[in-house]
Design goal:
The chain contains 45 helices and two strands. With 847 residues, it is an all-alpha fold. Among the domains are: 61 residues, no CATH class; 255 residues, no CATH class; 66 residues, no CATH class. The chain is extended, with a radius of gyration of 38 Å. This is Pentatricopeptide repeat-containing protein.
Length: 847
């Protein structure tokens, strides 16, 4: 068959009469998809085919034939308005739009809709007619500020009005439980390995990945998604797999992806996955919308979380109790308890009756707002609602009492739990109380419950004992902690490394480092080998007590003790040496830390640089910064600024300017603080022209001057008497960043330097706003005039203040009046006091 490039229109007409074209296209062709197009390979069994040169016609035919097959074999599954769903969905979910670039170059991008060629879904795709307009409308509102914009009306509960009480409701959830062997499956492990190599992918690795993907069962795909440490990587793999030819996600994969995203703040990704489910014809159950709602809640978007209910109504999905519980949980976590209670009442009106999970969410909300009485009342009301409270209901209130150290109330609640609900305290109850009390620093009360549990025949494990030991150590009660350890040994409940480490850290906190060392030896005697955390606690104690050199020696000899220092260990020793002034040793530890693959963070780097600069060791500080930069440490602008400031304090401005240029070479762009440090140093050394040029350079780069920048420029220019140049510079700075008190600062600086004439010229600019700051500035100018024995000028300033409805300082004005009387200007003196009388600040008798 000879097919031209534009013959796909005829193919459409032929496919429309499918019965007439049986046997017309009896061929098989394999395609290898590239980013540019397709390369066809003719099989040996095929005759000479002209599709080798015109693959596009073949592609269009297969797409149309596939769609026609779906319409003929699945009647009613898609409406006529959704005929282009395969074409549109690829555009809507293109990874270039959602910024998942690492997987964006992989797989079929243009003709991914040909995945309908084969279906690996296992037949689990249930189609459902959903309203796509609901998704589009929901997407348009994403740009709104959804945090803290909650309204008091109940428009978000409109979905409850459409609830059909006669509808058959099921409580099953599309949630897959994977076994351990599925995570260890060879195909799953190989896929995960290839995903880790995604930064260095090539066509060979991608081809292997695509081949393995088609061999995976849906449960294995879920295992791959759940195995990723970063949820963003899991989402990238999900999108990439969805684009592959002859592959389509099973429904359980969508629900697994949504469940993963519900534990993160990636609400945009969750919304896109849910929208993709609708376009793929996957049945969107209420649980899918619940996952989206929780994700919005974690991201702090309460408004969009509640709008999911509206989206459910438009999609035609029936509400269930689980989704209502999710909505109440979202409201409680957002501290919208009143709205949660209104939702609670509305759901009962429409026929959705709460269960114990619903009540537990509300109990949690009451406890979060310290309304424990209402929480107790809610437990009392549950019995009348044919819903008995469980232990979680009581544990939630007990947790609140533990935080408030109300042990008596905890015991009363335990008795109530037994009498009214027939729930007896068990091992979980006592373990929960012990851990909650210990966590909140109430070790004595936790120990009482431990004794009570043992008296009732329960055996508290080493985890419960360790919690009490750790709590005692944090309080500095080492003797009590040590006695519990000895008690554990006598009971046969051998302490583990966590328990011993808590005691070691406790001894170090109170300065008993020798006792901490003995405890480490005690660990060896009881066949408990100290780990890195144990030694780090000891080294931290040594550094606190001023024995950082000894700590460094112990760290260097770690190989003999068969333990390996980590980043926290190196940081503790490094800062211990720095605090003791042993900066060279601290730098050596930092270099060794980098050589071991542990990079200090910018804060740690900055502390070392600042200490070296304070000691005047600028060259050593610069070498340390360069080495950190060359080794790949996270050096930031603050580190460069600290070093530049050190050079400026030392007076080496050439080195500071050179380092400023080096910042651009290192792709570390200086900020306003960096420029301000150099501008101040240039002005201090009289290089005011260079300071001006640098200020203009800062403005041209779009950096906004800070209040410190304004104070620096004003101080240096006023110090040199360059008032005109200062005003010109301020006129260029103010449009970039407003500063209401800029002219106040100029006048005050001029007054401090004795340039009262220039200060008086600028007084009109200050009096335009007539604020309290302006009054303080005028009072300062009056005081300076008075100190220069110029009372008449001070009087004129006071009059100008009265004209702007500003009241001068009364005591200062009285001094001005007396000085005017001495100089024979009684009219001005009387007029000044009369102004105060007119405004009610001075009585005539006082005058």
């Amino acid at each position: 068959m000879h097919a031209g490039y534009f013959s796909y229109h005829r193919i459409h007409r032929i496919v429309a009469r499918r019965s007439e074209c049986v046997g017309l296209f009896q061929f098989r062709t394999c395609f290898y998809c590239t980013k540019v197009g397709f390369v066809a390979k003719r099989l040996p069994c095929e005759p000479t085919s002209r599709f080798y040169g015109y693959p596009f016609v073949y592609i269009r035919f297969i797409a149309c034939l596939s769609y026609s097959s779906e319409r003929n074999f699945s009647p009613g599954s898609r409406s006529s308005s959704d005929s282009s769903v395969h074409i549109v969905e690829r555009d809507d979910f293109d990874e270039g739009k959602v910024d998942y670039g690492e997987f964006g170059e992989m797989g079929v991008k243009v003709f991914g809709e040909l995945s309908s060629f084969g279906d690996n879904t296992g037949g689990c795709q249930e189609t459902q007619s959903l309203n796509f307009g609901g998704f589009d409308e929901f997407e348009e509102e994403e740009g709104e500020n959804c945090c803290g914009s909650d309204s008091d009306d109940d428009n978000d509960f409109a979905a409850l009005n459409s609830y059909n009480v006669q509808c058959v409701r099921t409580d099953d959830v599309w949630k897959i439980e994977l076994e351990e062997n599925e995570f260890r499956h060879p195909l799953v492990r190989e896929i995960c390995r290839l995903i880790q190599l995604r930064s260095s992918w090539n066509p060979k690795l991608e081809s292997d990945m695509r081949h393995l993907l088609r061999s995976l069962k849906p449960r294995h795909v879920c295992a791959v998604l759940l195995s990723q440490d970063d949820e963003r990587v899991a989402l990238q793999f999900f999108y990439w797999a969805d684009r592959q030819w002859r592959y389509r996600h099973n429904a359980i994969v969508y629900y697994a992806m949504l469940e993963i995203l519900s534990k993160t703040k990636l609400c945009q990704g969750a919304r896109r996955v849910l929208r993709l489910m609708a376009r793929r014809g996957i049945q969107c159950r209420p649980e899918a919308f619940g996952y989206l709602m929780v994700s919005y809640s974690r991201a702090g978007n309460l408004r969009n979380a509640l709008k999911v209910l509206t989206l459910i109504q438009k999609a035609g999905v029936e509400l269930n109790l689980a989704l209502c519980n999710t909505a109440i949980h979202v409201l409680v976590m957002a501290n919208r308890l009143e709205k949660a209670l209104r939702f609670f009442e509305r759901m009962q009106i429409v026929g959705i009756f709460p269960n114990v999970v619903t009540y537990n969410c509300l109990i949690k909300g009451y406890c979060n707002l310290n309304q424990v009485e209402n929480a107790l009342q809610l437990i009392a009301d549950m019995s009348s609602k044919n819903c008995s409270p469980d232990k979680v209901s009581y544990y939630t209130i007990m947790s609140f009492f533990c935080k408030e150290k109300q042990v008596k109330e905890v015991r009363d609640l335990m008795e109530k739990m037994v009498k009214e609900s027939n729930l007896f305290p068990d091992m979980v109850t006592y373990n929960t109380l012990i851990h909650m009390l210990s966590k909140n620093g109430h070790a004595d009360e936790a120990l009482e419950f431990l004794r009570e549990a043992e008296a009732r025949g329960f055996q508290i494990d080493k985890v419960g004992h360790s919690a009490i030991v750790h709590s005692y150590c944090k309080q500095g009660k080492i003797d009590e902690a040590k006695s519990i350890v000895n008690e554990m040994l006598s009971k046969g409940c051998n302490p583990d490394v966590v328990t011993y480490t808590a005691v070691v850290d406790g001894f170090c906190r109170v300065g008993k480092v020798d006792q901490a060392k003995k405890m480490l030896q005690h660990m060896y005697k009881h066949d408990c080998k100290p780990n890195t955390v144990s030694y780090t606690a000891l080294l931290t104690g040594l550094c606190r007590s001023g024995n950082s050199l000894q700590a460094r020696e112990m760290m260097n000899g770690s190989e003999e003790e068969f333990w390996t220092p980590n980043a926290i260990t190196y940081s503790a020793v490094m800062h211990g040496l720095r605090k003791e002034g042993k900066l060279s040793e601290a730098c050596d530890v930092a270099k060794k830390m980098i050589s071991k693959g542990f990079f200090p963070n910018p804060v740690e780097i900055n502390l070392i640089i600042e200490s070296l600069c304070r000691e005047g060791k600028m060259d050593e500080a610069k070498r340390f910064l360069e080495e950190c930069l060359n080794k790949g440490c996270a050096v930031n602008v603050v580190n460069f600024t600290t070093l530049i400031h050190g050079y400026c304090r030392k007076g080496d401005l050439e080195a500071a300017l050179s380092l400023l240029d080096d910042m651009y070479l290192s792709n570390k762009h200086p900020d306003a603080v960096t420029y301000t440090a150099i501008i101040d140093a240039l002005g201090k050394n009289g290089r005011i022209e260079e300071a001006t040029d640098l200020t203009m350079k800062m403005l041209k780069k779009g950096l906004l001057p800070t209040p410190v920048t304004y104070r620096t420029v004003i101080h240096r220019y006023c110090q040199m008497g360059r008032v005109e140049d200062l005003l010109k510079l301020l006129e260029k700075m103010l449009p970039r960043q407003k500063c209401k008190t800029v002219y106040n600062q100029v006048i005050e600086k001029l007054c401090s330097f004795g340039n009262l004439e220039e200060a008086d010229k600028l007084l009109s600019r200050v009096l335009k706003t007539a604020s309290r700051n302006d009054a303080n500035t005028c009072n300062m100018l009056m005081e300076r005039y008075l100190s220069k024995e110029m009372p008449l000028s001070a009087y004129k300033v006071a009059c100008r203040m009265f004209n702007r409805n500003l009241i001068p300082d009364l005591k200062l004005s009285e001094k001005v009046s007396k000085r005017l009387m001495l100089e024979g200007k009684s009219a001005e003196a009387d007029n000044l006091m009369l102004r105060f009388v007119e405004r009610g600040h001075l009585s005539p008798q006082g005058e």
